[in-house]
């Protein structure tokens, strides 16, 4: 009996003050039906709004003058619709969902569920539908294009004065990963870099800010007056921003004159470029210490590369003996624990069977190299460095005695055509034909670009791209900074819905078969790839590499690859043509 009385007291029943129906006691003393009839949360709320849509570019207007591209029933379109409802800020939005309409009806409906506090702190929830009428209007960009007026207002000219494009390829992947090209109107490939065109100057400044965060960029600016309306005092300019990247790249050998080395805190004379971000990371191969130089310091000193990766020479490791670092040694840099000092005995791969010349080299690759490995390095003994006035001090006998004969850079691998076994690919920026800039230069010189010159340019471009992709395969740290995608042409699906890898000349392999046959197929379908650096050295080791088919080449695991890349992705991201 005691329990029953407690339950009766906790659930008090009263009569509704309007209809007299028995209800549970609440602060308003009304049932839900009567409460909804007395209070309307949507009173004064617009049930119909207008959305401005440009049918030429597929973008919606976000007042006052921003145009945003959004698909039907997407979260971007819902955000645009909710921003049009100004009174929504006074209510608590619980749920929002699209109500299906015919795509050609120019009607977009949203079902909104809102809550608010009404009589005597009673919480009332109500659902209603808001209809948006799509009105067609041409955006300013499409108007300029229809009137054949130059659409771009600012251009960023990204340049690097080197004989390869590996750094530009890496920068392109960073732009794609961080979606820094979302405001780009068009991209044009030039001889030494890329031109990025923007509709507004603010978009170009935003892109320049991104470049300063990922690279040591020297920026210059100029503007050109296009038109002037004296009655309204309105000026229209076109802005040109020059962004220059240092002409040094990863794996380059940099020589510091004694005066410059002293200014930087007593650095070594020969340093390897280990990484280039918004700072240049220089590695001392004789001590393993790493030094950082910011962009302002680099441009003030004007450092250049003594030797670049094109001049790497192949060596064979005969013996490796680890060396302990001297605890009393001091340096202004910090110690990189990924490397270990060692004394390596190496010989030129081209000299095997010709002479017995060997070199004892101090290297930072002690934890990577072992006897019999192939290693790439700079041969300072046979190098010709008399062409530049910057290195006249190298002729000093006292300085020559302190410089090493060989500077080892990284481990090498036998040259093979690895494109057929590569199961990953990279995205590319949609670029216009680069012949435009070359034709202009040729016209100034009174000549014209021939088909042979274009073929040579394409061959050099593919060679640089292959070298960059091999760098990604061999360097996990570099690979972690970019997005790698599964190559849709290399992955196939069997009858059971399992995803497998397709190899050259193979039938459709399944994932279970791949684990058993991948290594064997990689070896059987490997072909030597000509046109790469160090080919003369690899030709010497041809017999050894054929006998030992396992070259221990680094591979990219499936866990590192992203899905979602389609063959038509680049076409979907194509930008409007740039008028110049």
Short structural description:
This protein is an alpha+beta fold.
Structure description:
The protein is α+β, with helices and mostly antiparallel strands and 580 residues long. It folds into 4 domains: 128 residues, Nuclear Transport Factor 2, Chain: A, CATH 3.10.450; 95 residues; 160 residues, no CATH class; 133 residues, no CATH class. The protein is 25% helix and 29% strand. It has 16 helices and 29 strands. The strands form 7 sheets. Strands 5-4-3-8-7-6 form a 6-stranded mixed β-sheet, covered by helices on one side. It has a 6-stranded antiparallel β-sheet with strand order 18-14-15-16-17-20. It has a 5-stranded mixed β-sheet with strand order 10-11-9-13-12, with helices on both faces. Helix 5 packs across helix 11. The N terminus and C terminus are likely disordered. Keywords: Cytoplasm, Nucleus, Protein transport, Transport. GO terms for molecular function: mRNA binding; ribosomal large subunit binding. Acts as an adapter for the XPO1/CRM1-mediated export of the 60S ribosomal subunit. It is found in: Cytoplasm; Nucleus. This is 60S ribosomal export protein NMD3.
Features of this protein?
single chain; 580 residues; alpha+beta; Nuclear Transport Factor 2, Chain: A; six-stranded mixed β-sheet; six-stranded antiparallel β-sheet; 16 helices; ribosomal large subunit binding; NMD_SH3; cytoplasm; mRNA binding; nucleus
Question: How are the elements arranged and paired?
Answer:
Elements: H1 2-10, E1 13-15, E2 22-24, H2 32-38, E3 48-54, E4 59-62, E5 66-69, H3 75-84, E6 92-99, E7 107-117, E8 123-136, H4 140-146, E9 154-159, H5 166-177, E10 184-189, E11 193-198, H6 201-214, E12 218-229, E13 234-244, E14 253-255, H7 258-263, E15 270-276, E16 279-283, E17 289-294, H8 295-301, E18 305-307, E19 313-322, E20 334-335, E21 342-348, E22 359-363, E23 374-379, H9 397-402, E24 406-412, E25 424-425, H10 435-445, H11 451-474, H12 476-479, E26 484-486, E27 491-493, E28 499-501, H13 511-524, H14 535-540, H15 542-547, E29 561-562, H16 569-572
Parallel strand pairs: 3-8, 9-13, 26-29
Antiparallel strand pairs: 1-2, 3-4, 4-5, 6-7, 7-8, 9-11, 10-11, 12-13, 14-15, 14-18, 15-16, 16-17, 17-20, 19-21, 19-23, 21-22, 23-24, 25-26, 27-28
GO molecular function: mRNA binding; ribosomal large subunit binding
Protein name: 60S ribosomal export protein NMD3
Subcellular location: Cytoplasm; Nucleus
